[in-house]
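Anyone able to model this chain together with heme C?
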Amino acid sequence: MKKTFILSGLLVLGLLALSACGGGEQAGENQGGQKAAADASGLTQEQIEKGIGPITSVTLGPIDDALAAKGAELFEVKCTACHKLDKRYIGPPLGEVTARRTPEFIMNMILNPEEMMQKHPVVKELLAQYMAQMANQSLTEEEARAILEYLRKVEAEGGSSQP
Ligand code: HEC
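re: yes, here you go
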C-alpha cells in the first residue's frame, strides 16, 4: 500500500518533469533540426538582420536635421523614461544603437516590441539581461523614422550628446 503510494508519487513527478521539458523545447524545435545555429530561432536571416515587423526596407540619405529635431522631441517624451543615450537604464543605452543595429531593426523594435521580444534572439537576450519589457508607444511609422534620424545624428556626433 505504502509502496504504491510512493510509486504513484514518483510517476506524477516524472510526468511533471516531462511536460515541463516539452513546453520549453517547442519553440526551438519546429524546424526539424535541419538548419543549424544561424536560425535555431526559426527566423530567416533577413529577420535576424532587420527584425520582425512592418519595416522591411529603409533608405538612408544624409542626416536630415529637421527630421532629427522632430525625433529628438519624440525621444524625450516617449523613450527617456527607460533609455539614456550614454548609459544603461531600464533599457540599453541608445547613443550608439545605430552602429550595432540596422535601421529596420530599430524601427521594428519601436513599432513592434512585443513580437521582437517574443521571437528575436537578440532581443530575447536583452530581455533576460534587463529584466524589463520594452513598451509599445503606439507611434506611427513616420514618428519612428524621425526617432531613427535623431539616433543617427546622435551617433554621428559621438554617441552621447544632449539629454
Ligand atoms: C518601459 C520602458 C521602455 C520604453 C518606454 C522604451 N523602451 Fe526601448 N527598450 C526597453 C528595454 C527594457 C529594452 C531591452 C529589451 C527588452 O527587455 O525588451 C529596450 C530595447 C530597445 C532597443 C533595442 C536596443 C538594442 O541594443 O538593440 C531599441 C532600439 C529601443 N529600445 C528603442 C526605444 C525607443 C526609440 C523608445 C521610444 C519610442 C523606447 N525604446 C521606449 C525599455 C523601454
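Residues 9-37 have pLDDT under 50 and may be disordered.
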